[in-house]
Amino acid sequence: MKNKIGVYVCHCGGNISDVVDVNKVREEAEKIGGVAIAKHTIFACADSSQKEIAEDIKNLGLDGIVVASCSPKLHLFTFRAVAERAGLNPYNYVHANIREQSSWAHSDDKKGATEKAIALVRSAVERVSHSVAMEPVSISAKNITTVVGAGVAGMKAAIELADMGSQVYLIEKAHYVGGRTSQWGELFMPGETGKSVVSYLYQEVNKRQNINLFTGAELVSKKGSVGNFEIEVKITPRGIKKDADTSGLEKAIQVCPVEVSDGFNFGITKRKALMNYHPGQFPEIASIDAATCTQCGKCAEVSEAVDLNLEEERITLQTGSLMITTGFDPYEPEKSEFGYGDYDNVITLPQLERYLELNGQDLVVNGKKIRSMAYIYCVGSRQPEGENKYCSRYCCTSAVHSAIKVREKVPEMTVYHINRGIRTYGKQEVLYEKSSKNGDIYIQFNEDTFPEVSRNGKHTVVKVNDILTAGKELEIEPDLVVLVTGMIPRKDNAIGESLKIPRGRDKFYNEIHPKLRPVETTIDGVLIAGVCQGPKNITESVKSSLAAAAKTYSLLKREEITLEPIMATVDSEKCEACDKCTTACPFGAFEFIEENGKKVARVIESNCKGCGMCLPVCPTDAIELSGYTNTEIEGMIDALTESDY
Amino acid sequence: MANKAPKILVFSTEKISDPAIDLAGLLKMHYPPTVYSIPLRCSSSVKSRWIMHAFEQGFDGVFIAADGTDCSYGESCVDKTAAIIAQTHEMMKAKGIEPARLKMAALCSVCAEPFVKHMKSFYEALSKTPA
């Protein structure tokens, strides 16, 4: 039993102390037998607090510590390191989660949250008082990363990982790499286009022998754990034979009778089921959309390159980690939202980008030359009600940038920006300045007075109260209304469901901690980067993918992962060699030996994963799991029931 | 116990269901504060004696937030956890404890909403169950 335990209760700024009476928790902790010191601290994770804890361990000779703060998923390793630095075995530290499981969960009941926090601290003290010193164990790991999603974030991460020496599987669901960036024309900073960026990355991917790119490929299941995952990948054939004569493909596309809306152009054009690549899509090879192809065979009659055997293939890959870079969907306005779907001159910003790419030196929408246009900002973002309360970050800059590009094509264009405050942050501010100098007109509304779009004869009318001119009501009759739509999480969340990646309130994938562990998830070995974790521009996406690449490489580079030294142990005196433990263990971690003339079970440490499946099956209760012994668990239960609350 | 709020002990798992309980907190989804969790490595590692000990010490209900088919230690977790529950139910009957006081449900790592629903309904059921 430990008898010099230190307890540290964190305010977490006000995240805990706004609800939980942390001083009361500290006072109660001080009364627990074996507790030598109990303190509260504004941020237990701050450098100064860590130093204070380490000094207490050394100066007071503490033999165990309890930190009551946020989830151990955030700071377990922080405080283990503090213990280690001060000479205390890291497993003589126990964490009490009084934020996620108390102050946040019970912010509606301050008294209840405080009583629960006290009980959780008592329970943690009880556990640490029985804790034993342990040393970590190592397992072999594969230095292989599977990157899911070959947009700019995924390709950049794959290249960096390959250059550091990892094997990379790059899996892309579509038949083309590049993701959303392929769809954009000129980008900010100037001089680059979506096509040039994607083309460069695709060539770099192809140069590296340790990157295996799979297109038309989808991860469907995962087994195993960090360092040693086994994944199943479904591959849908492209429908074009390799090394075949492709001269007849143009004709084959023409004769294809299936015509559907072209998602690449956000529905402003049609495409066939047998489709050619768009500029910016790589590889530059046609493909068949298996979802819409009727297999009528007309294309195969005119082109020997077509292969109508679209039978999907399944392959199994071994990988040490998974990095998810699956991007986003653009917000699609509801029917009649600001006239969308009602009037053919109301389009979205992504559609405008495609019109700019397809139009040449003018801007023509649905056959009409555009000479005045009004952007309406924050459509599907910063919504006061319902979903999408977040700012999508990229859209103000993208809209202002597009307005500059429009004026380069049509200098006489009249441009209105009907906005809720322009957020062209950082270097992007120069675009706002340029647009203003160009003569663009900025009109601002707030969430109480959304603009209204209606029809007056042949004219589309935008009515808005401009808060920059004391709420004066303005009526504009633009040739074109552009809805500046934001980013939303991918509607297809199959990968998230398959891997069980947590999602936040905004429904994007959730990292463990936005500042301290920004690309890790609660699933060890599964990382997230790019827009799948929240709105970002291309630069920010690539930065996060590089962070994830560095993180996964640091995890796998030694091809050895340090694991918790949680292991089963057998009490030979109690063991009756009944064999139930060997049946229960999925890892073959038990063998039988002779000990003092008696046959008993013994744990093979290299095989034991510390799952504990053997514990309940032992009829004589001879098996215990380090860190989860009867004494520890039942002691925690006793501590939780100590209060009458 | 008649006038007191029921106390529920949740045996969660570090990798799967405890993150869901954390997520419920992150999303400020409320449930009764007399719900306490002890995270284990895997739901099929819970011993019947721990569950019985919880009842003996005054917990009104025990909930196993099981890994289900998501268990990283293997699919056998589902059947093994179910076997533990069945065995413990027999032990509870022998001690005169209503088996309904021990519940199990599979909770994935993002199942914050199902967790809160389970807790509210279990709490409500225990409130109506005589001691």
What gross morphology of chain B would you assign? Answer: globular
The CATH level-2 architecture of chain B is identified as 3-Layer(aba) Sandwich
Number of domains of chain B: 1
The main pleated sheet of chain B reads as: 4 strands, parallel
- End-to-end Cα distance of chain B, whole Å, is 7 Å
Strands of the widest sheet of chain A, in order across it, are 8-7-6-16-29
Structural class of chain B: alpha/beta
Radius of gyration of chain A: 30 Å
Q: For the terminal residues of chain A, how far apart are their CA atoms?
A: 27 Å
Provide a descriptive summary of the structure in words.
- The complex is a heterodimer of chains A (645) and B (131).
- By secondary structure, chain A is of the alpha/beta class.
- Chain A has 5 domains: 5-133, Rossmann fold (3-Layer(aba) Sandwich); 144-236 and 312-327 and 490-560, FAD/NAD(P)-binding domain, CATH 3.50.50; 249-302, no CATH class; 330-488, 3-Layer(bba) Sandwich (FAD/NAD(P)-binding domain); 567-625, 2-Layer Sandwich (Alpha-Beta Plaits), CATH 3.30.70.
- In chain A, strands 8-7-6-16-29 form a 5-stranded parallel β-sheet, covered by helices on one side.
- Chain A starts with a strand and ends in a 5-residue tail after the last helix.
- The model of chain A has no long low-confidence stretch (mean pLDDT 94).
- Chain B has one domain: Rossmann fold (3-Layer(aba) Sandwich), CATH 3.40.50.
- Chain B has 4 helices and 4 strands, in the order βαβαβαβα.
- Chain B has a 4-stranded parallel β-sheet with strand order 2-1-3-4, sandwiched between helices.
- In chain B, helix 1 links the parallel strand 1 (8-13) and strand 2.
- In chain B, helix 1 packs across helix 4 and helix 2 packs across helix 3.
- Chain B starts with 7 loop residues before the first strand and ends with a helix.
- The mean pLDDT of chain B is 92.
- At the A-B interface, helix 4, helix 5 and helix 16 of A face helix 1, strand 2, helix 2 and helix 3 of B.
